[in-house]
Amino acid sequence: MATISKIKVGQTLYDKHKYRMGHTTIMTWGLWEVYVKEVDPEGRFIVASWNGNTPRKMYENEVKKLKVKEPEMPKSRW
User: What domain range includes position 30?
Assistant: First the structure.
């Protein structure tokens, strides 16, 4: 779990969550790298981008869901 006070500019965080595969009911895990571009000195938000998107503000409730170390992916049941 990441906290804004410990994040530095240039650091890579990880976003891991389940998502639906196309138009099916099959779920799988996804892992995305989140690149920190800017950190608010007062610790209220960060500016980050992932998956080639433009950077955007992320507040504390979103940042708490990110991982500092790359998590292990669960093994597929298939």
Answer: 4-63
Residue whose C-alpha is closest to residue 45's, from 63, 26, 21, 66: 63
Helices and strands in the chain: count of H runs, count of E runs = 1, 4
**Residue 11: phi, psi to the nearest 5?**
-75, 150
Look up the CATH number of the domain holding residue 53: 2.30.30
> Is residue 73 situated within a structural domain?
no
Q: In this predicted model, what pLDDT tens digit does every residue of 64-74 receive, in sequence order?
A: 999 999 998 87
Report the alpha-carbon distance of residue 17 to residue 31 in Å, rounded: 7
Helix, strand or coil for residue 63?
helix
Alpha carbon dihedral 51, 68, 64, 40, in 10-degree steps, equals: -80
Taking a C-beta distance cutoff of 8 angstroms, is the pair 77, 36 a contact?
Answer: no
